[in-house]
Specification:
Three copies of one chain form a homotrimer. Chain A is mainly alpha-helical. The first copy, chain A, has a single domain, classed as Ammonium transporter AmtB like domains (Ammonium transporter fold, Orthogonal Bundle). The first copy, chain A, contains 19 helices and no strands. Chain A is elongated. The interface between A and B is large, with 85 and 94 residues. Chains A, B, C: One of its GO terms (molecular function) is ammonium channel activity. Chains A, B, C: It is found in: Cell membrane; Membrane. Chains A, B, C: One of its GO terms (biological process) is ammonium homeostasis.
Amino acid sequence: MAMSSYETCVSQLDDGLNITVQNSLLIQCLAKSIDENTGTTSDLRDGLDTFFIIYSASLVFFMQAGFAMLCAGSVRLKNVQNTMLKNLLDACGAALGFYTVGYAFAYGGQSYDGKTTFIGNANFFLIGEDDFVFWLFQFAFAATSATIVAGTLAERCQMTAYLCYSVALTGFVYPVICHSVWSYNGFLSATAKDPLFGSGMIDFAGSGVVHLTGGTTALIATKILGSRKGRFFDERGNKLRHPKPFPGHSVALQVLGSFILWFGWYGFNTGSARSIVTAAQSKIAALAATNTTLAAASGGVASLFTNLIIMERLTGEAVFNLNFAMNGCLGGLVSITSGCAVIEPWAAIITGFVAGLLYLAFSRLLVKRCIDDAVDAIPVHMINGLWGLISTGLLASPHLLEAAYGNSKHAGWFYSWGRGSGDFTLMCCQLIGILFILSWVTFLMLPFFLFLNYMGWFRSDALEEIVGLDISYHGGSHHNMNEVKPEYLEAYRKQRDEQLKNRGHNGSTTFEDAEEDGVHVSVDNVVANF
Amino acid sequence: MAMSSYETCVSQLDDGLNITVQNSLLIQCLAKSIDENTGTTSDLRDGLDTFFIIYSASLVFFMQAGFAMLCAGSVRLKNVQNTMLKNLLDACGAALGFYTVGYAFAYGGQSYDGKTTFIGNANFFLIGEDDFVFWLFQFAFAATSATIVAGTLAERCQMTAYLCYSVALTGFVYPVICHSVWSYNGFLSATAKDPLFGSGMIDFAGSGVVHLTGGTTALIATKILGSRKGRFFDERGNKLRHPKPFPGHSVALQVLGSFILWFGWYGFNTGSARSIVTAAQSKIAALAATNTTLAAASGGVASLFTNLIIMERLTGEAVFNLNFAMNGCLGGLVSITSGCAVIEPWAAIITGFVAGLLYLAFSRLLVKRCIDDAVDAIPVHMINGLWGLISTGLLASPHLLEAAYGNSKHAGWFYSWGRGSGDFTLMCCQLIGILFILSWVTFLMLPFFLFLNYMGWFRSDALEEIVGLDISYHGGSHHNMNEVKPEYLEAYRKQRDEQLKNRGHNGSTTFEDAEEDGVHVSVDNVVANF
Amino acid sequence: MAMSSYETCVSQLDDGLNITVQNSLLIQCLAKSIDENTGTTSDLRDGLDTFFIIYSASLVFFMQAGFAMLCAGSVRLKNVQNTMLKNLLDACGAALGFYTVGYAFAYGGQSYDGKTTFIGNANFFLIGEDDFVFWLFQFAFAATSATIVAGTLAERCQMTAYLCYSVALTGFVYPVICHSVWSYNGFLSATAKDPLFGSGMIDFAGSGVVHLTGGTTALIATKILGSRKGRFFDERGNKLRHPKPFPGHSVALQVLGSFILWFGWYGFNTGSARSIVTAAQSKIAALAATNTTLAAASGGVASLFTNLIIMERLTGEAVFNLNFAMNGCLGGLVSITSGCAVIEPWAAIITGFVAGLLYLAFSRLLVKRCIDDAVDAIPVHMINGLWGLISTGLLASPHLLEAAYGNSKHAGWFYSWGRGSGDFTLMCCQLIGILFILSWVTFLMLPFFLFLNYMGWFRSDALEEIVGLDISYHGGSHHNMNEVKPEYLEAYRKQRDEQLKNRGHNGSTTFEDAEEDGVHVSVDNVVANF
């Protein structure tokens, strides 16, 4: 048994001192033990928070796998490889982009006492930054925002275009929004020293910063890119009476993706508390996790059963639509991301429920308007990102705002009315935030995509699209291609050889084995030829 | 460098005081630093435990993905969508059910000093409850208990029936068991102030509460629901000489599911320590994780090699049966769930080994008795849930009971014999617990399923079952349906149109595109029609 | 509100004492509060570290699922079941092997003050060891090292051989290396009291211990086992002009596997800090996580685009090769595993970039040399494990070495030159470590595999390989076998019946249903026959 601190201190006293002197020395000695405890505790706080953020960042990173599986399941077999590569490159690109400039633009040189800036301008290449877990967490968010777009554009977008916008988004467009809403020096930030209208915009974990940004980009991009061949129009460009369904190739992977995303959201939302060393922060993190669960659940239920009831009325048949249930859950998750720390559980259920209905309505609207979204990312991320911000403006509770932001002057509109004031300040900040994000994204991405399109870098070649992007970009497909008609394959092969000859190459060697092998061209024989 | 607490206190002293007065003031001043440390530490304890439970709950939630993949892999392609929806709805339903009433029945108003109750009756809608992480963790457990049943009934159960029993289970049946075994006020609880026979039932993480409950429900349900068409009987109802195998459509997904479950179990079992801020609790959590690993491993090995040896004797051929290895692991995990904190690693290996053998024997028995379990959930969860409780009664070690429950008066029977007493108290509590769970589940679920069956709400229509539930409930299948004979599809389509006409609808529009498209009916053309 | 510690102590004083005596008593009383705080804090340190390691170990364990999915996706459908079983048995075997002897050989009886030993020799069956989380973490590493080999040998290795080498590797070969590099008493250990040349070998999370060991074993094994039939040679043994590609059956599962591995690596590398309770350790863990991310990203990008540029030059066509991107990421992860805690982020990017190039070059070299590696595990794990150790010898920064190992006398060669000394000590230790691992593995595994091969226990029967291992070892396949020609199936069936008859069994019963069912033989009819 170790000696008590008192015994230790007594044992260090010289003999024959009088009691008063002894007391003085003991006090001095014990003070050291106190300081040691303070030091240990401070280290523990560091350790706990570091671990908390590593955990959260890992889970947010794992959402990349979720998006990948959701996309993989949602596309046709002939495009799986292409889609998977885009998902993988998102993660890689975001890491490098956020390391070099993205983080610097978003948080570089932030200081609580500094003045409001539009963009950060320090810590490029992480120079001078040693808060590595914060970088890690933020990188994972940036990667998420880029991945959202990938799904929408699946099956018809060129790799080059994809690489360009992915870098632009994570390197510049997203960081500026991130800076404005989350940095101490952002003009919308609720954690700024002197926030907008004394309130600032509340976007706890990024309904706006991440999802609205990604979703809006997706909408702009798909409008310019156009729909997949045969989805809404026939070969002569006449509108089909019924849009042709392009069912994904694996429901199981879609559901796996959804569950991984839901799982990852526990890192996304709770980790946004950024620290868990005070009792208040613990409560915030716990509330965020609970609200996340409830909103997801009510979103899925709302979407599934509303559709079921409508369909039953119209066709006499009860149809349980898995896609709607799944995307309803995701919509609920997106919508709660903004307010998870500042609204009550009952409000989370309402938020999720409305999210499910909004998803359903806008998914339908997109189809009506012939806007092609291969994974319904627009109604899930854009619409519900937007709704999440408004829901927070409505339902943010004063005492939770106090706990999470230390500022409850301007609560949600619902509570303001309850207080009899009708104070619209918070909601106003939310609306300004929404307008800012919509404008900023449109202002940058619209000309960007128009330019890509004008240069012919955006849309895949028509024949490539029909035979599938796996063959055209990846040297072959790993799968039996009975989705694709042989005559299209033949036509594609001819066109390709032609092009290669024009560039002075003889492409035929690469396809030799392919001839023997049907259409089984792959990695290895490509390798064998260089 | 910050000043030490001593220097700070000295700097606050007025000049010219005598040493004794100085000492008094210093003491007073340092006491404040002590209190600050105490406060910081207390906050850290909160934070660490909150984080620990958020982590554990996330992992337990992720088990939903594990069950989903296990089921997806185990069913035939034509039922994947149906199965996936059930898994997703489990998570949603459990969240809403446990928020509204389940949690209130299970833990509402629990108090260590309160008297024994049969059911909780406070905190409905989480009103008055602010321990959100505890709710989150418990919700994830409730969801698990419902999901267990989904697998067994796959490929032949109506959605309506599924929704009904899923709500009943998570909203009422499970919470009462949970209350009895885990609430301070439960009559079987080992953490009660005055536990049953001075011991109470030891079910650390829920072999009984979760798995026996789910597994027993599955057994009752499948007995009433009957086996899948063609599994044990031919079209005229004659028993087949050999049961027809219904192999699942993806081994890879089954294994993925098993690994996710094993991974999730590290949250399930270690999180059940509920707190990790004392050295004793850390040891418990660590032991639980280690035992979990060992039991899973020995369960898988036992099941695989026992089967291999038997088959080799009978047929002369060594067959490595993946399904048995996989389910042996899961059986081992279920069996260790009860005792993971109170038995030694060697005992975990024995527990897992026996679990593997029990799984094998009962899986065989079910087939012999023509009880159809699409994923072998009954031998995995029911039989090994039961065995887990008995194993704890046998092998719970006194010093671990002391560490985990602060009560080692009644140890496992094995140790009692070692002590020369043969004290059967703990085992007796375990047996009472088993009887209680079996009776309670049977008492409620048997009439419930009989009623569903009597009303015709339980079993799918025969033709629907043959063409697959994906077409009948979900407006089509995402897959090539070469599993299904065209004449059955044709018959099903006629029957369906007939029904719709009788209800005054003209269903044909919905199937128009389907005609053009082979049997590719899907989400989008369904959407296009409302 | 609770009383402050000062008030509490004052309230315990008797009346009428003089101030000096009061002070003495107060000091004594407050000292108790200090000790209580110290105790609570010490418990918290225990708790935080235990939790940190449980978390990390869970993630490392989850990598088993990653390897399984990577393998499942990379093999042909006819071998999926076989591959999955091997992955599952790895986890089980490693748990049992590491429990019984592996841990004892690796860390048994380690003591900082003990002398250097070649192998541990205490704590067999975990007797006398109560640091269970450390065991758990180490078990997960051992399992990883065995799993690496599984992929390379896929599609042609007998189950028996697999079981033998898997046990040998995790039970003896790996533990000795682990002991040498990581135990306090290892002759290469950087944490030894008196490390080699005053420096020791730096392998923070196991580029060498885990990946080089696994990868080297894989290389030896595949050299002896030979390539898959038809991969490099035709039926008469003539070398093919172009190696025949054996594309895996699911790109989506491959990518899922890669993402799971990347996710798991956050446990692998950060958890190797082993503790997170001091500020220095927090920084190490955070840096490790960040470097892990950056190396993976730059590895993937390097491999993808270098290949793209080369191919574009050669064939005129830009090919985005998903497999190369994926394995480039994994190569980057392997290479950063050794140095993640001691190199700067910019160095992590360089390390990963070189790893991507090395992967590409060696993947190509293997094909040229007709060395068949079904998942490219050799260039990923062996080559980049080796490169990771060298990269650490080059780029380990003095101040990070100081933080992580408390010893910065011998920094990376790059920094040594900067200091003007050219001190080669660290690099020398790294090279000795590499030589040791290569020699130890070769010395043990080469005769081992030669022996297996000589006895005819290594390679599957030729016909079995052609019809796929799922039928031959697992009593049938779960899948439509249109990969396999019917005449081969027929030939295989005849050969099998012959063998069974020779052993005195009549195998035909087992295949009865199979006849009715095409080649759908499965679990259930196998069960039905014992």
